[in-house]
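Slack export, channel: ligand-projects

TW: morning all. Re-posting the request from yesterday since it got buried. We need the structure predicted with the small molecule present, not the apo form. The ligand is NAP; the SMILES is in the block with the sequence. No rush, but it would help planning for next week.
GE: picking it up
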Amino acid sequence: MGSGQNVAVFGAYGHTGRFVVAELRERGYVPLLLGRDQDKLLALAQAQPGLEARQVSVDDPASLDRALNGAAAVINCAGPFATTAAPLVEAALRAGIPYVDVAAEIEANVDTFAHFAERARAAGTVVLPAMAFYGGLGDLLVTTAMGDWTAADEAHIAYGLSSWHPTTGTLASGVVSGQRRGGRRVRYTGGRLEYHDDALPTLEWSFPAPLGPQSVIGEFTMADVVTVPSHLAVPEVRTYMTAKAAADLSSPDPLAPAAVDERGRSAQTFVVDVIVRSGGAERRVSAAGQDIYAISAPLAVEAVDRILTGRTRTTGVVSAGAVFDAPDFLRALSSHLSLHVPVDTRG
Ligand SMILES: NC(=O)c1ccc[n+]([C@@H]2O[C@H](COP(=O)([O-])OP(=O)(O)OC[C@H]3O[C@@H](n4cnc5c(N)ncnc54)[C@H](OP(=O)(O)O)[C@@H]3O)[C@@H](O)[C@H]2O)c1
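GE: finished. pasting the full token output, ligand included:
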């Protein structure tokens, strides 16, 4: 359990931020509620009595320094991260505290690795981008599937979502990423990101029962193409999305997530199915759960807990699989995630 330490949550009143605030409280941490809109902050503080709200602007470094005063770590839930990540990482480095974000923006995640690697390492601190459903979970699963392999020919991460009702932040991040790519698509092949205009293939993926075979969109590229190759020698990293969820996301009038339980989770279910191949051998692991936004909270908070209790393997800008004991991390989330490791695929 947390130690009563303060953990700052930037974007605390957003959809994901609220899950993170609740998860921190459940685990004995004291969230500091950070955001740019005073009215929304006050409304959240009223709903969360006893918590301190601090208004900040990413354009005002002094406001960020004040907001992080007394925080043991910061979790950035405010996207688009193309705007928020760099100022928050800078502030975390000035404060000498770990930084964790939930960014699913490939280019923003690349920037975090590129711009802050040396300074984070020199400071001996952890900067952990994409510590959420996309990016973080896939990397933990690939790292777990790899086992004692240090390299593989390819890694495949298939997202079996029952639906995808996106938040405003997801849609805004998608627009920003699309603009940064000049409308082009991106994939990870030959050990690097490649921008292209090819049509995305539709194929069938056999998810573990009970989901079974599903139509998926191939090269539906997610943040795992940044996190996985950041520490594993895998030249081909491919991600796939159920066609139904991809259609939900690109709908001209997408539905927002609707809460169906007391935690605020939606009815959305997911299976993340990972296959890694090396030579003729194949290894596979999958995880199932409910609500991709809600699951991001235990992922981010478990990460913060491990960092603050010294259960880390390295410092600098890192991904989850590099800094944590991946199988142990996933086991710790057993109340949120059902893991499936088929015995017959251990090569
Ligand atoms: N990797 C993953 O799997 C994963 C999981 C969950 C979320 N995410 C990402 O996290 C981000 C937030 O998602 P969400 O579901 O929480 O969306 P949301 O409910 O729309 O919340 C977005 C939050 O970000 C804040 N924000 C946006 N730009 C800001 C800025 N420049 N300065 C300060 N605050 C800013 C918003 O504040 P205002 O209301 O004041 O605009 C709001 O609090 C999105 O980028 C999403 O893609 C990724």
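GE: first-pass observations. The pocket of NAP is lined by residues 11, 13-17, 35-37, 40, 58, 77-81, 83-84, 102, 104, 130, 132-135, 167-170, 173, 223, 292-293, 296 (CB under 6 Å). The chain has a mean pLDDT of 96.
TW: perfect, thank you
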